[in-house]
From TrEMBL:
Entry annotated with the keyword Coiled coil: no
Name of the featured protein: DUF6533 domain-containing protein
Keywords: Membrane, Transmembrane, Transmembrane helix
Domain DUF6533: start-end pairs: 16-58
Species the sequence originates in: Crucibulum laeve
Residue stretches spanning the membrane: 12-29, 49-70, 82-106, 118-139, 159-187, 229-248
Pfam families linked: DUF6533
Length: 274
């Protein structure tokens, strides 16, 4: 790969990282009042824990990555840590976000043991596979830093890890299954001739947008993964945070509590466990 191409990549990575960090901080600032008013008083649950992890742990990891990507003249030791750390970020982000998606599917298919079983199997298998890939990356993959590019922002390895595609393929498979389970619920409503409630239509719509974006981006440029890493991780964080705030709105609680029998779904699990 020629020097000009590497410089272009370094600039692109830096710009994407800066844009994502700006959006993350802006989103946190404009939604903090909603978080304090709606989330802090809510009872402790798996959903709330996942939300807070996504809101703070994932956000802190992304900001750290963005700042690191903008720094030139990093030592080889720091670069080795940083490049390995990126796959840890992908794994943690994926596990937390997909956990939120699992709760969404569970709420929609509360009485469907088969759907719940499929959801748990793919989520557990996907998370375990990502953890295995991280361990493999740390044990079996060598990270050789290109010292000639030390003046560029971020870090550059002389080669791409052989297992890098796994970090895109595994989440894509898991999220495809979760998406199909969400859409299948909407299909049942359509097949029975009944219109889906607006709140659940919103949920299905957001799932469709979320899935479409990741289907288009995940397979792209696996030979240059760092360019898309920040954007993908940011979308994970932002879409799930925004969806959560949409669903815990008071109108959601009021609507679903009055239509619980019609929906066949527990309203508190829809509003607080998704």
């Amino acid at each position: 790969m020629d020097l000009e191409t590497l410089v272009e990549q370094g600039t692109a990575i830096n710009l994407v990282a800066a844009s994502c960090m700006t959006c993350i901080l802006y989103d946190h600032f404009i939604t903090l009042d909603q978080e304090i008013a709606r989330m802090w008083p809510a009872r402790m649950s798996v959903a709330k824990i996942l939300f807070l992890l996504n809101r703070y742990l994932v956000q802190a990891m992304l900001i750290f990555n963005c700042i690191s990507a903008s720094q030139p003249y990093l030592s080889p030791g720091v670069c080795v840590f940083y490049l390995r750390w990126l796959v840890v970020t992908l794994t943690v982000t994926g596990a937390i976000v997909q956990g939120i998606l699992v709760l969404r599917v569970w709420a929609l298919h509360r009485n469907n043991k088969l759907a719940k079983g499929i959801t748990y199997f793919f989520y557990a298998s996907g998370t375990a596979t990502l953890v295995g890939l991280v361990i493999t990356d740390y044990i079996n993959e060598d990270v050789l830093i290109n010292k000639a590019l030390n003046s560029l922002p971020g870090c550059y390895a002389t080669s791409v890890p052989s297992i890098i595609a796994g970090f895109w393929i595994v989440p894509l498979v898991v999220e495809s299954v979760l998406f199909m389970l969400v859409i299948s619920r909407a299909f049942v409503w359509w097949k029975n001739g009944s219109s889906a409630p607006r709140i659940l239509s919103l949920l299905a719509r957001d799932s469709t947008v979320y899935f479409t974006v990741f289907v288009l981006l995940r397979p792209c440029r696996t030979d240059r993964p760092h360019t898309l890493l920040y954007f993908l991780a940011f979308l994970h964080f932002w879409l799930q945070t925004s969806l959560y705030f949409n669903l815990v709105h008071r109108s959601c609680l009021a609507f679903l509590s009055s239509h619980q029998q019609q929906l066949g779904v527990s309203w508190d699990r829809i509003c607080y466990s998704i």
